[in-house]
Amino acid sequence: MEGWTGAKLAQLLQEAALVAVRRGQGSILQSDVDDAVDCLTVGPKRVGIELGHQGQCRRATTEVGTAMTSYLLKRYEDAKVESCNASQSFLVAKF
């Protein structure tokens, strides 16, 4: 966990505790911490969700849009997101 802040380590232990509770355990095991690291760095496991090619393309497009929006908004300190409409897939930001 090189480079992790105290807050990130606290988040890691909270996530490991949630993993342990979901498994019905009374304490946190190393495997819970390992799964929590994966969840925080890669994202949660998506069990039972099988995306076809079209679903994968949609997800990839959404991820690219999110990354580009995040990059562009970081360049402007006073940027405010005015509206985000998921059904029409657009974002309005004022700079």
UniProtKB/TrEMBL annotation:
<dbReference type="InterPro" id="IPR041569">
    <property type="entry name" value="AAA_lid_3"/>
</dbReference>
<feature type="domain" description="AAA ATPase AAA+ lid">
    <location>
        <begin position="2"/>
        <end position="34"/>
    </location>
</feature>
<dbReference type="GO" id="GO:0009507">
    <property type="term" value="C:chloroplast"/>
</dbReference>
<protein>
    <recommendedName>
        <fullName>AAA ATPase AAA+ lid domain-containing protein</fullName>
    </recommendedName>
</protein>
<dbReference type="GO" id="GO:0004176">
    <property type="term" value="F:ATP-dependent peptidase activity"/>
</dbReference>
<dbReference type="Pfam" id="PF17862">
    <property type="entry name" value="AAA_lid_3"/>
</dbReference>
<dbReference type="GO" id="GO:0045037">
    <property type="term" value="P:protein import into chloroplast stroma"/>
</dbReference>
<dbReference type="GO" id="GO:0006508">
    <property type="term" value="P:proteolysis"/>
</dbReference>
